[in-house]
Write the C-alpha cells for this entry.
Amino acid sequence: MVSVLIVNDQSLQRLGLCMLLTAEPDLTVVGEAVRGAEAVRLSAALRPDVVLMATPSPDTDGIEAIRRITRPVRLPPDSARPDRLPPRVLVVASTRGEGHAHAALRAGAGGFLPHNASPDQLTAAIRIVAAGDAVITPGLTRALVDAVRQQRNPHPLDQHTGSDTFTGRERDVLLAVAFGWSNAEIAARLSIAPATVKSHVSHILAKIRARSRVQAVTYAYESGLVQPAA
C-alpha cells in the first residue's frame, strides 16, 4: 500500500484528488496540506511514501518545502536504527515555465507531471515514484538537457566528486539512469537483481550528495559523464 500526502491550496482539487486516489486499491491518502510549510510538518509526522504537490506552479515556498521534505533524516551515530528515508515528491503543475520544473527537480522532487495529465497517468506516476524511479515528460527532459547543453560552466551537485569515484558497475547504472531506464529495465539489461540496482542507485546518490534520481541525471550531464545529443 502506497501512502500519499496531498498538497494543494484549492479545497475542491484536494477533494477530487483524494477521491481519485482512495478509489485505487493500492493507494491511500494519509493527509492533506494547503501550503509548503504545512506539507513539511505533516510529512515528518505522517511519513507518507509520496508527497503529491499539485499546484499551479512550484513557487519559492514549494521549492523550499521539496528541499526540506526530501532531506534524509539523520539519526545520532549511536542509534541502532538506520537513517530514515524521506518521502518522495511528485509535482503536478503547469509546464509554461521549465525553470520552475527544473528548480523542483533540482530541489529533490522525484518526478514532474503537467497539470493536464490524465487520472491514469497520475496514479501510475505515484506508483513509479514510490518505487524509487523517476517520472518526467519527454518534453521537459529535452528542455532540461538543452539547459545543461547551454551552460558554459557546468556546476555539478558535488564538485568534489569525480566520475572516477564510482565503481564500474555504479558507472553503468548511472549511465542507465541518465538514459531514463527504470530499475527493472536496468536489472534486465545488466543481468543483475532489481535489489542490486536499487543498492547501486542509493550508493550513487550518497556519493554525489543527491536526493533523487532526477538529480543524478542532472549530475551525469553536468559532469560530462553523458554528452547531450547535438
About this structure: The CA atoms of residues 12 and 187 lie 41 Å apart. The chain has two domains: 2-147, 156-222.
